[in-house]
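Hi R.,

Here's the chain you asked about this morning:
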Amino acid sequence: MTTENVVALPGYSVPTPKGEPVQGVIDILKEMVEQAECGRLRAIGICTVLDDGAPGTTISNQFCGDGHSWDLEVSARRLLDRIREWSDE
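And here is the predicted structure, written out as tokens:
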């Protein structure tokens, strides 16, 4: 299936074909690794959705607070608000 003529509605993106890397995910992870390696990233929470070809998807999450658990919780709540706002559009 080709998606070259598919246009996304405002606020959405054209899904990446199954089995291909999602460039936006790669870009975010690279940026976060750079921030971690230079010592600026002090806490992180990661929510993941894995699609390994099995029926359905696998969801998981991990976090590391390094003494910034309150800040991380505030950030996670803001992320959840952004996701809810995006899904309500």
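One quick note: The longest helix spans residues 69-88.

Cheers,
M.
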